[in-house]
Structure formats: structure tokens, C-alpha cells
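Possible race condition, two jobs.
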Amino acid sequence: MSKKVLSIVETAYRATLEEQDDTIIWLTHAMKGAGADIDILLRGNAVNYAVKGQDASGLAFGEKRQTQPPRLDEDVAKLVGKGTRVYLVREDLAERGISAEELIGGVEMVSRKELPKLFAGYDQVWHW
């Protein structure tokens, strides 16, 4: 019997200089594709991942230009499309001045005080 996993992503934009997305978002895609029962909670700066229309193009190191930037909002939207529940911490959005209208569709907001109840619904909670 598979375990139900909630993967918390809090450290944002780690290893996102290449076209590959956030390593944990990528891992979640792979695990979901392999049949894992896994959902995501974005908190802290990682709530930015759900802001639609992000554009990381324009990054350059001297003459070397990044031509395949990450598209984290699209990666998160694809997870929603795969049936992964994606939660956001409402207070973390507000602290960053992000409104609900700026978010991709399908994400669910939870308050900090609702987190223990959310965690209780999973067999394992991973924190990145």
C-alpha cells in the first residue's frame, strides 16, 4: 500500500538557473508519474512558484545567455493537471503582496493555523 505524502517546498529558486525547474517540483512530477500519492505545499518564498506569467528570461553571465529559463508556474500548473493537490500558505502570499488573482488555477490556500490538520491527512510530510 502506498503512503500518502505531502511535500513542503519552502526554499524557492534553488537550482533553477537551467531549464530544469525546481528540483523538488521536478521530483514530484517524476514520482507522480510513477504512481506516488503525493501533494505539495508551497510556503515561504516558494509561494511565488504559483504566480502566473513568470519570466526568468534575460539572465546572462557575461556573454553566455540563458535561452531556456525555468517556467515554474507552468510546472506547478502541470502538477495540478496531473491530479496533484497544490496548497499555498495564505499568510505567506499576503506577506509578499501577492493576490489570489495573480495565481495559476487549481491551487488551494490554507492558513498557517490549518497546517496541523492538513499534515494529519498524510502518512509522511517531507520538508525541503
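Job #2 (started ~2 s after job #1):
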Amino acid sequence: MGSRKQYWWSLAGVVTFLAVWEIGARVSGSYLIFPGPVLVIRRFFTLVQTGRFLGALGGSFLRVLLGILLSVPLGVAVGILAGLDKRVNAFLAPLFSVIAATPVMSVILIAFLVFGSERTPVFTAFLMVFPVMAANTIVGIRSVDPKLRELFTLYGLSRQETIRRLYIPAIMPFILGGMRSSLSLCWKVVVASEVLVQPLLALGTGMQRAKAQLETPELFAWTLATVIAAAFTEWAVSTLLRSGKKGRFRK
């Protein structure tokens, strides 16, 4: 399917979504329960002109950035170690299982007792993204052709050289894929944490206050802002990664 057809199909999807949303709002009969898209979009544009919105957006963005900067390098490093050494993999397997099985809300509440309201969203994002990056890296390491490994051993290359010349290029697609999926996960986890622990400047705090004041259109507007921020950062990272690939190919 060509890009022009894809555009029209995407536009049809957006129009259908808005129509279903509007019908649902009219059926509910009250904007306090389920406001329509026109009211929410109007409230959104009112909200973005306020100073508290910019502060909240900046605070949440900073927490997402810190969560990614902490979890991605450490997840990749641990994933390389676990992928190369089965003993490290076996040692870390119970930890990854515990993290995967623990409800996110429990992690947020426990972290709040230890780290306080400002650092809990960052810690929770780190804890959720770190295993994803490590698991993707392990899969990338294991996808390397064993014959290539034997060839590197045959030519007497050191372990560091083998990692740099063989494993790093092989795991890059897995790392980039993990980063793309981790970004949206990071936004969800950070904002969910903010809703619960309410740091000073945060999108989640805005949602919680709007809900407490029964400002349902504003609650939807904060949610719309979060969706747009997450989509924009994912688009920006994907564009940067594509530019990096093209630059490498030109070389």
C-alpha cells in the first residue's frame, strides 16, 4: 500500500475515533461524566497557554529522560553480560521474574516510602524499562551466528574485539527496537507514578487535581497532553535513529 493510501486510511481512523467519542459523549448526557472531543480540545488549548502546564510538561519530560538515561545503558550492559555468560543470566533470571510479576502500583507505593514524591517516578520508570532493554540485548546476543563466533575465535581476536566488532553491530537493531517501545512505556509509568505520589510539577499531578475538582474535561485535556508528548518524543527519537542509520550508510 502506498504512502498516500496509508495517509487516507489513517485520517479515516482518526475521524472514526472522534465520531465514536462524540457519540459516546452524547449518550452519556453529561460532560462531567464523559465530555466530547470539541470540549476537551478547547480545554486543552486553554490549558497549554498557562504557566502551570509548561512547568508540568517540563517536569514530566525530565523524569522520562532521566528514566531512559539510567535504564538504557545499564540494561544494555547487563544484557551483554547475561547474553555472553549463562551463569550471569541464571543469576539475574529470578530478579527479572520478580520485577515482571510485581504490580506497578506496588512498586510506586514502596518507592514513595523510600525515595519521596520527586524521585519515585524516575525510579519506577527505571525499574520497568531496565528489564526490557536487558531482555532485548540478550536476544540480540543469542541471535549471532555461531559460525561467526567460531571464526572470530579462530582468528584469535580478543573478547573485547569480538564484542566491539561482532556483538555490538548484531544487537543494535534489538537495542533500537527496545528504546522505541520503552519510550511509550516510560511515559505511562512516569505519569501513573505522578498521579499517585503527586510531585510539584507533573502532568500526573494535574490529572489528579482535575479529578479531585470534578473537572472532567480538564482531566481529559491533561491526558491528551500526555499522549501528544509521548507521541512527539517517540517520533523525535525514531527520526534521530533513521538519520543516524543514513549517516552510517553514507560513510
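The chain has a mean pLDDT of 89.
Logs attached separately.
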